[in-house]
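Field: sequence (string)
Field: structure_tokens (string)

Example rows 1 and 2, in order.
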Amino acid sequence: KEPAAAIVEMLKDVTSYEGEDAVFECRLSRETTQDTQWFLGDVPLQSNEMNEIGVQGTRHTLILRKVTLEDCGPISFKVGQHTSTA
């Protein structure tokens, strides 16, 4: 069983204007096959035309496209027992 990945670079707060993209990024201690999940509030996010979820090695990114006031709220990234929120 692979050792658990930890979050080494936490999410940073992002301020965006309506219609802009908001980009969130965090970095893990290692590449992992562990389940990772992004949340807006309590809602799990999926990659679709409004949300772009990417992974490059240990870097995990979330891009919220053309944000609206409804997108305002805490964004969280979870891997194993670790969570980062912005």
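Row 2 begins here:
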Amino acid sequence: SDGSIRLHQMTSEYPLMQWNGSTKGQPIIALQWALTRPAVFFVLDASSNIYIWDLLENDLLPVAKQTMPSERVVTMTLLGEPEKANGLLGIVLAKESGQIDIQYVKKKWALP
């Protein structure tokens, strides 16, 4: 609820990494690991901002941020085929109106 993200290992109650205020205090609505690239995850906050984290490129801050200005995004999920090396990765965004938007991610964040 405060925008903090914690990365845990299953064998410990303490986080391996913790990023406080990663969304400048906005609650996190959804967080998903990339299906095709293990070090990348996506975060959606309550202000319809999408943050892309690539832990191999930068483990302190997101590598990109995209604001969805037209309408509030209420949830997101990822689509892709992890068993294929084509690097196709998409973000499915559900908007408040019920509209669904699919956007494809740049190859540098999708390739295995």
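free_text_note (row 2): The chain has one domain: 5-109.
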